[in-house]
Every structure is written in structure tokens, then in C-alpha cells.
Design brief:
With 184 residues, the protein is an alpha/beta fold. It has helices at 13-24, 31-38, 48-68, 87-96, 146-157, 173-182; strands spanning 2-6, 27-30, 74-77, 101-107, 137-141. The two termini are 20 Å apart.
Length: 184
């Protein structure tokens, strides 16, 4: 299963991603951490080009990790700066790898537009995430205490199930490239 964390800066995505990875025994792949490791002295905001490059690296790492351990859960904290509609590509990518995609959107009512519900319960996400089945899109109110937000996210995710691959089943290097091209 691939769990993609989505939401505006400052909502607590990174903390929730770490908590989910810890509780689920999952691999956490973070664009922010990768940026820090690869470009330790780069204090500038990410350019569109560098942002896309880092996201591509994370998708490649996701595919390689799942090739080695297909039952491993991957928590992906890699939202592209300025490109919130990347979810359709991620859905194709996860299907090509035979993995279920869950999108967890982190909102904080004090920091988000007022269009989002204020309930602390997990709800389907509306709008640009409609391509992902409603039972795999989850809204988590991050104004709740961190432990409560984590419990909400975990309960939303439920038990993971596998999705049948939509390609020839090959997840080696060629399968990785095919899945990567599907994500764009």
C-alpha cells in the first residue's frame, strides 16, 4: 500500500507521516528529508525543476522498495510545490505497481480555507482528489492533538488490501520506468 500525505505547508503532514510510518512499520519517503540530504546548504525554496526531480526520485525509490518487499507499506510525504493535482498520476503509478493508493489530506481549520469541514472525523476528500476511490481518500483535522490525529488517520486507513497489477506484472527496472512514466 502507498499512503500519500497531502495538504498545505504547516498543517503537520511531516509529523503525521512519521507517526504513520512508525505505527504501521512502513517505509517513510520524504521529499523534504531528501532535499536536506542531497542539498544541505540549499536554503532557497524549491524550483519547479528541482521539485519535480526530487519527486521523481521518491517515486523511483517507492517502486524499488515495493519490488523488494511488495507487502511493505510506503508512506510518501512528497507533495509537489504548487502541484496539488499530481494525485491522478500517483493513482496510475500505484496501479502499475499493483499497490493500493490511499490519500490522507491534512487540514488545519485555522490555517486552511473555510471550505473544508471542521469535523474531527475522517471524511472523503472532495475536489481534485475525486480520481481516487472515496474509501481511499481521507481528511484528517490536524487541529486535534497529534496522538488523536494519528489515531484518526490509522482508523481511516483500515486494513490494507492488494490491488492487482494493471501491467504484465514485471516490477523490475523496466516496470519501474513504466510505472514512473504513468505518474506523469
Amino acid at each position: 500500500m502507498i499512503i500519500y500525505l497531502h495538504g498545505s505547508r504547516g498543517t503537520g503532514k511531516a509529523a503525521l507521516a512519521r507517526g504513520l510510518a512508525d505505527k504501521l512499520g512502513a517505509h517513510l519517503l520524504s521529499k523534504e528529508e531528501l532535499h536536506r540530504v542531497l542539498f544541505p546548504r540549499d536554503g532557497h525554496p524549491l524550483s519547479e525543476e528541482k521539485d519535480g526531480w526530487l519527486c521523481d526520485l521518491l517515486l523511483q525509490a517507492t517502486a524499488w522498495n515495493l519490488d523488494i518487499e511488495p507487502t511493505r507499506t510506503i508512506v510518501l510525504d512528497a507533495q509537489r510545490a504548487g502541484r496539488t493535482a499530481e494525485v491522478v498520476g500517483l493513482l496510475r503509478f500505484s496501479r502499475a505497481l499493483g499497490q493500493e493508493l490511499h490519500v490522507v489530506e491534512c487540514v488545519h481549520p485555522g490555517r486552511e480555507s473555510e471550505r473544508r469541514p471542521r469535523s474531527r472525523r475522517c471524511q472523503p476528500v472532495e475536489g481534485h482528489l475525486d480520481a481516487v476511490p472515496r474509501d481511499r481518500t481521507h481528511l484528517v483535522d490536524m487541529s486535534a492533538p497529534a496522538s488523536a490525529a494519528l489515531q484518526i488517520a490509522l482508523s481511516c486507513l483500515g486494513a490494507p488490501t492488494r490491488v492487482e497489477p494493471s501491467h504484465d506484472g514485471s516490477q523490475g527496472p523496466d516496470g519501474v520506468r513504466a510505472a514512473m512514466s504513468e505518474a506523469h
